[in-house]
User: Fold these one by one.
Assistant:
Number 1:
Amino acid sequence: MNAQDLKNSILQLAIQGKLVEQREEEGTAKELLEKIEVEKKRLIKEGKIKKEKKQLKISEDEVLFDILESWEWTRMSNIADMYTGNSIPKTIKENKYSKVENGYDYIGTKDVGFDYTINYDNGIKIPFEEDKFRNSFKDSILMCIEGGSAGRKIGILDKTVCFGNKLCSFNLIYGEPRFLYYYLQSPLFFQAFRDEMTGIIGGVSITKLKGIIVPLPPLEEQKRIVAKIEELMPYVDKYDVAYSEVEELNKKFPEDMQKSILQYAIQGNLVEQREEDGTAEDLYKQIQEEKKKLIKEGKIKKTKTLPEITEDEIPFDIPENWKWVRLNDISTKITDGEHKTPKRVEKYVGYYLLSARNVLNGEITLEDVDYVDEAEFVKISKRCNPQNGDILISCSGSVGRCSVVRDENNYVMVRSAAMVSTTGCCPEYIMYAIQSGTVQKQIKNLTKQTAQANLFLGAINQLLIPMPPLEEQIRIVDKLKEVLPKTKKLEV
């Protein structure tokens, strides 16, 4: 139950007579209605309110629940004087009424908040002497009755104002204004209001609004109900803060759990180390020999030697048989996609042209992919031709997402994505290592911020990776594939 549900429950209990006890000495709502009728006749005689058409009697079909013996169902217009305000053309409002120093504040729909507040400081005032505008008075209620916010923007006034034509003023004839104010916020009223809505814009006519029924308690009970609601609302606000914090924790928990598991994995704590696996140093030497062989055969290019890893760079201790390496050390090729704008063709024709948006963590999505023809594909693939087992990294915008190519699709890429071809290592392990908090922090520090974030090849080359022996890499990947899907089930 969120805070709004809790508030709705309190209001529902209130208007059903279940929030405070009933007291015989407080009389009945029937007696209150008689007093209201007397007051109404006096106000009509004095010309302060208009005489209303007699409302239809309330039928049994309209009554939504049983009320207490001391309560009465009545129609809205029986207890309140209700009317809409006046519209002002925008040009006149800005040119004439924005220059008034002394006058009534003019309240438009935008000045009544969804949080039940009213903004009086919009700079528009109506001169006191101008009598063509209708007033709404202190302790009266303004509610939007037309448009998307109809029935949901409600406020109670602390002074006399003029107001707009999409707002309805409820001036209680006799009673506790805040009881009506809270009733108008209740789910019961909103449902009744929504049932009367018509039109493309959506709204309720003043005539239909006057006919909506209200469960009315005796006056003293109204006051006690209001006092109890206002006693409870600060607790609802505190609950809202606590609920939001819990919701945020629940939302973040699966993601935080995944991050923790990945971090656990790259620190050598997810699976056991086995002596028979050998060492990462041996694996590193094999990789260097393989790279020399491929360079000699002209299959890959020799790259610049990167600086040795210093102790200051190492973020944590790893097992003795592991080794810190730079990504370039264990890769045969690191490149990004085409820098010039490729000539695209119609969807579903030609070859896939990937960009950063197609590279997600652990997934290559083709939902919004571009295409190039064969000639463009051949040209781009000379620079970047991802193959099964290559790692793709997003390098622009949301940088650092990565996935392994595990299909036989023919891909080429644009500059916003990069490709890493490794040798001697398990590609999925490298992918998970890149996704870990340790490497993501490096990526963040190495990313260049211009109009948007950009991760360049020089930064990718020098990323620091904790490398275990190959067999342990494979065991780590198997364990991650077993454990990580379970964290998704924790999502709320």
Note: The chain has two domains: 3-238, 267-488.
Number 2:
Amino acid sequence: MNNKKLLFILIVLGLIFLLTQLFNQKKERSFKSELVALDTSDITRIILNPKAESQKEIILEKTGNQWTAEQGKLKVPAAEGSLDGILRELISIKVKSIATQSTARWKEYEVDDSTGSRVQVFSGNKKLTDFYSGKFGFNPQANSMISYLRLEGEPQVFAIDGFQSMTFNTTFAGFRNKNLINVQQNDINRIKLNQGGKTQTLSKTGQDWTLDGAMILDSTTVSGYLQGVQNLNGSEIIDTYSAAGSADHELELTTASQSVTVKIYNSGDSLKPFIMHSSANPGVYFKEDSAGAYQSLITGWKTLQSRLGQKK
């Protein structure tokens, strides 16, 4: 009788163990897939409070196929592709482990409201998820990056594979259109540059390039210049600038189908002495130093001039 009882107890304990394991496995699978479970086609609005902006709110809203970005009183069309990283990360969050369940350690992982980047995602008026994206670091054992995430209203901090913390900790400027020139190099047939009242014109005739209709240029140098200006962006957006007076440099680039004019003004700032404005992006001014766009447009032109009378 005692042996039967012992056998019965062992069987019951075995069943309990198996059920516990099965339940934990199902719970773990559900946990991983449902922590942030989204379909990007359902997302119509994202509210960010990124650490990089000292938690200043950024509202990203979708109407039809177009996203807008809003901060304070400024609302602009979001630059093409600027939300791709955020949408991609929202559907690829995979939890590795629980880093802590202690609220006292939130600051350590940068997931509270003063150190983290808050992310709220909506479909219409329905909130799909709400979480804080914290710090990131390197996991030497897995040879990969790891980020930390906490769901709003929950104490647990989760360790996540990847660069989510960097993606969600963005700035409003990251959603702005910074385009100055966006054409194909082979489509360009003329560039006219006016500096201090003196105008020079770089023109294409057949396969040859000439300056002011006379001097043939080194084709390799021309190709390098065109490659540098065909897809050119500004750097620091200035929303409060208003152009006064004429531009110091005015460059007009022409293709068979369009003309783009870039004007360059003196900013009065010794570190970033130039203000740039493009007809391709009329609502934006950019503050620039002597590298980047200025180097491609103006310094590159000086290289063209040094190749006058040469041909390869």
Note: Residues 179-305 form a domain with the Dna Ligase; domain 1 fold (CATH 3.30.1490).
Number 3:
Amino acid sequence: MRALLSTRVGGPDTLELLDTPEPMPGAGQVAVSVHACGMNFPDTLVIEDRYQLRPPRPFSPGSELAGVVKAVGEGVSFPKVGDRISASLPFGAMAEVVLAPADRCSVIPDAMPFDQAAAFQVTYGTVYYALCNRAGIKAGETLLVLGAGGGIGLAAVELGKALGARVIACASSPEKLDMARELGADAVIQYPSDAQGADQGRAFTEQIRQACGDGGVDVVVDPVGGAYAQPALRSLAWEGRYLVIGFAAGIPSIPLNLTLLKGCSIIGVFWGAHMARSPKKGAEDMRALLALYSQGRIRPRVSARYPLAEGGEAIRQLASRSVWGKIVVDVVPAEVT
């Protein structure tokens, strides 16, 4: 089989498309014929050894996939051979055949295209876990979404609306904000391209306060970090919850006196660790998300698709932060999906 492999530390140019032995499933595993692989920001980091997980080389990037179960290992009764599934992995999804733990697989609806399924599990799973399990968001609360043009951000806008929240979406361009509006955002803010200065930070906080009114923000979803974090934290209402999901703009420094003054909580969201520790709860969450998908209330937005041989370019585009929605790598050619 073919796999796109990281054989040495470096950027997308270091990835190599190589022939490798096809893996056979062990106990509790399934072998999946991969049709599509969804790209996520950690894929840009793991190949450069800048992620908290450092797999031994050679390895394939990619942490979510969709395809068809080809074989099952000992003790696996679900899913079955021939089932259309999505799955999440720590890494390894950019290959024609991938081994996945059976309890990390979800059978997808027949009407769900493989590209949408490959863009679904990590993004929506992370946001659902953040909003429901970590923040306990309630209908009528105000949700602020940073990075609202990316995969996590757009999923947060959609799920926030589906859960009854009032959603304020922040992004770096009018085009990304237009997409957030289409998904139901109640208000949008184009944040400054450079929020490093104190004046720019205060201006961003004031924009948020004007958008949400007197009560302040109840929950913040932040996959961005950097200079945008502190202004967003300052906009929180009393006992607000700040969800830390990622650091696309860098790891911020937060003055902890703000948490005392606002009685607020800064909450880490590590969905991969949650899935590893609580696979039954993760499977329950995925069933709830697939029900919302079947009802037409959430729908992954795929902005670009690349063949497996160009998976490095897909990672490069993701790292540029210029794309909206999700990028997908087609492992099986589109005409047979």
Note: The chain has two domains: 2-120+301-336, 123-272.
